[in-house]
Amino acid sequence: MRLIGNKTHGDLAEIGIAEFINQFMYDFTSIHVGKDLFRAKEHEEDIVIISEMTRAPFPVSLKAYGDGPLQLSTDSDMRLFPFLESLGKDITGKTSIEKIFASPAFSDFSNINVMPLIYNERKKQCNIMVFDHNAAKINTNRILYIGKGESFGDKTQGKARLHPIYMFLDSDNNYICEVRYGGATANALQRGLWTHTKNATRYFDSITSGWIDYSHNTALVRLFSLALNSTEKGHLEANEILQADIDAFKAR
Known about the structure:
The protein has helices spanning 9-24, 35-40, 80-85, 94-102, 133-139, 218-227, 232-250, and strands spanning 28-32, 47-51, 57-66, 69-73, 90-92, 114-120, 125-131, 142-146, 165-169, 175-180, 192-196, 204-206, 212-213. By secondary structure, the chain is an alpha+beta fold. The strands form two sheets. Strands 1, 2, 3, 6, 7, 12 and 13 form a seven-stranded mixed sheet that branches. The protein has a six-stranded antiparallel sheet with strand order 4-11-10-9-8-5. A hairpin with a 4-residue loop joins strand 6 (114-120) and strand 7 (125-131).
């Protein structure tokens, strides 16, 4: 997907994962919500997964990111950082931290269904890693303000900040996640709830059981380019061929 473009690979992943669920996960169906609907949604889902047994919908936000900083929530209402700021710059104590996670500002912390599709282009490896929100809540021992131009610990814990953050740490001062500053002038990449796939490894579960190798598929890029310049009749004929290929693969 990255061969097609940096700004489109996430969108292509959304329709690809939605169709994968429909083709291969027999007890579930999936709907691609789309960007227009996405902007108007209460949550940040990209696809909705529906159980065929219970009919219960399950919204999922897909994130196609390089191995490193990972945004879990944009905090569109700008509640997280101002709330923490009102409590001080070094928040400790089990009771105080439990109250933070139980507060209205953090009400969505455990309801963020994020599926990060992580890649390392240099090594040509990818990983599907899920952040363990419950482990993060249970193990948070300290919430520390890191101001603009400041840093915490050694290089593995983060560089000097361009914007202030609140860093969540466990009892061994290991990084868990962070809330980036929430001022009115902040853009989506400068605020919200973030973590780091390298620094917070212990708070991720890997669906792919670790890193898997991949290679460039130039035939797929060619397929997209031809599809964008062919007729609907050609698309319908190609769909039949591709569906037959998928059916043969499932029958193995």
